[in-house]
Automatic annotation (TrEMBL):
It comes from Shinella sedimenti. One of its GO terms (molecular function) is glycine-tRNA ligase activity. The lineage of its organism: Bacteria, Pseudomonadati, Pseudomonadota, Alphaproteobacteria, Hyphomicrobiales. The keyword Cytoplasm applies. The gene is glyS. Its EC number is 6.1.1.14. This is Glycine--tRNA ligase beta subunit.
Amino acid sequence: MPDLLLELRSEEIPARMQRKAAGDLKKLVTDALVEAGLTYEGAREYWTPRRLTLDVRGLNARSSDVREDIKGPATSVPEQAIQGFLRKAGLSSIAEAHVHSDPKKGDFYVAHVVKPGRVADEIIADVMPGIIRNFPWPKPMRSGVESAKPGSLQWVRPLQSIVCTFGSETEETRVVPFEIGGIVAGNVTYGHRFHAPEPITVRRFEDYAASLEKAKVVLDAERRKQIIATDANNIAFANGLELVEDEGLLEEVSGLVEWPQVLMGTFEEDFLSIPSEIIRLTIKTNQKCFVTRKPGADTLSNHFILVSNIEAKDGGKEIVHGNGKVVRARLSDAKHFWLRDQGDLPDLDTLKASAEKFGLDLSKPLDQRMAKLDALNVTFHAKLGTQGERVARIRTLAAELAPIIGADPALVDRAVVLAKADLRTEAVGEFPELQGIMGRKYALLQGEDASVAEAIEDHYKPQGPSDRVPSGKVGLTVALADKLDTLIGFWAIDEKPTGSKDPYALRRAALGVIRMLLEKNIRLPLLTVVKDADLVSFFHDRLKVYLRDMGARHDLIDAVLTSDADDLLMVARRVEALTAFITSEEGRNLLAGTKRATQLLAAEEKKGTVVEVAVSPDLLTLDAEKALHAAIDTASRDAAAAVAGEDFRSAMAALSTLRAPVDQFFTDVLVNDEDPAVRANRLALLSAIRAATGTVADFSKIAG
């Protein structure tokens, strides 16, 4: 079966867009071909900085014929209606139609129309211009002489050529001709811009990929990444160093080169006095280079790894020299930021009111920055006030949380008032990713308690499911207060997540709160803090997602989670205990007996049958019902005591003693006794079973 090769070659595509664009091209093309009646065996996308490529294997040479039945009017309608039907069906005479009969509607015309299939070349040529013209680039642009015309082609960067060939291995491929934006599809591409600018004629994917390789283009992005990673590690190792790996940077750099050449550069050791985080971000952000360190060291070396797109005749000396000059200039700026942040601000007299408000010491640089943040009235959110007002709210909330978590209130307060101060530092102004990290470093430099400095960095954590939670109690308190203030505030102004939209990352904030409470065993009654049942419900939704991700069954979560449950740690512990119980033989059997009791009771209640409020011992005549009554009394008392002591496993163990008496009851006792009083009393026993198990979970919601 024939294969399709498609290449869209342009000027350099931004690295961050390449992978998604190649995937979009694959989906758009294959969907369009399938919708047009073609099938294919497989498709794979490729991308480089200058091209998107699609290799579609085993494509049908033509689409299948399609039979369509077009229902027409009754045979008794006027001639005018029949003519309309003929035009719609494409028939020249009513004699070409068939007459069908319906018992209710009588005889009517039907046209059996066969639409012949189309050759694949024609389909490809038909769908491709629309796909290219409407391609979902985030920021497309117009270019060339065609750009002045209305409706001209937009592409992420100027589109330069299109390759579109089709054919099987046993025949010569043919060009699928189509034109868009003045560019006509052909069978000619070009290799590396500098090393191989000559035209290359291609037929199918195998010779296309091989020809590009000879022309200094590695087509496969994953292979480019592997080349860069391997060569970078090798060159670092050869110099007695190890590469500081960075998957995001590796992905980006692989999208900047078609023929990766890995080189090593250096900078002066004096710059190593700058924190490693600043050095790494400076070199990464500005030069797209990797950093290195001595094996096992915490700090960096003065060697960096760069990736060039050119195989230089001098072995890369000039490239390394040029990159080194820029790196040194950037590090010089970074050193300037680092030192300035440790000095005094020039306008200290204007900061006294803010300093007094937050108890700040204006002899300390970080305190000055916090006072400046407040004095400038920097906006946090138009409806939620300034950063200073937000810090004041977090301060109040943190004071409430500190005794619950067991943190030192004075250290918590100090950490809160300094937590946002580094937002006014030049280092964070240049690299926002360093907020918190730089605050910790500056706090230690001015002699703050280690737990305060740690809390300044950790209060942003966790920032995602793979990020750690704060380790210390001070950090936990500030982090909880920070995230809860965010959630309380946005709920107050009705800025809640909707569908897939969550611009303020409120789901992430709620998940962070949940992880801190559960991983650090914190008992926090949420309603007393957030005072909003709808927000507690939002926490419930996030908790369900978190527990399911941890492996908990959704029905067990539903059996435990009630609308007024605001102690999330206790909910999680109940689910854990219930999971262990239900997977045991006693648990499974008790569940079956409890469900039988509950269903029978519900059916009788629905019919209006009288059920006694309490069991009357005088009406218990059979040994099995007497034994069950005694077992329920004991199990209820023991389970309730265990729940009160937050020992849910013991509560489950207490309930497990009901298994045998429940089974015996249903074996020996007829609930629907002829005597109404006895029946009502036995139903009360079933109600007691439901109440006893309900102290731990709603067993009716458990599947099985």
